[in-house]
From TrEMBL:
Signal peptide: 1-19
Keywords annotated in UniProt: Copper, Electron transport, Metal-binding, Periplasm, Signal, Transport
A Pfam family reported for this protein in Swiss-Prot or TrEMBL: Copper-bind
Name listed for the protein in its UniProt record: Pseudoazurin
GO cellular component term of the entry, any: periplasmic space
Blue (type 1) copper domain sequence ranges: 25-111
Upper lineage: Bacteria, Pseudomonadati, Pseudomonadota, Alphaproteobacteria, Sphingomonadales
Cofactors named for this entry: Cu cation
Compartments, record wording: Periplasm
Cofactor binding note of this UniProt entry: Binds 1 copper ion per subunit.
GO MF, one annotated term: copper ion binding
Amino acid sequence: MKLLGFVAAALVIAAPAAAKEITVKMLNKGKEGAMVFEPGFIKAAPGDTVKFVAANPGHNAQTIPGLLPAGEAEQKGAMGKDFVLKVGKPGLYGIKCLPHFSMGMVALVQVGNGPSSNLAAAKAVKLSPLATKRMTAYLAQAK
């Protein structure tokens, strides 16, 4: 009986932490102004999911080419629909709303504890002026 209890306790201790779901709203107006993801900077762990919720119509969420960890495929959500980003590899994942990208509607997901291996590449990605302003602030938070 004691052995059975020991085995059960060992399994609980050895079980990996459960992945979590993080919610991000796609908004016409938020704390940072017009056309924003809220929050705009997200910290996640490998295996987590980041759910972008279409709180207002007319938005989508998709990854930004060149602003992904090496080997990660680009992902794209449909217009006006929720989008779930499954994060596997540690690193930085850039997100944009395609119709409002030039208005600065971007987000940054940092997966794992920094420093992120693709930080230099992320800083080199060309964005619109308003997107650059927001993304620069998010990249400063990625440690």
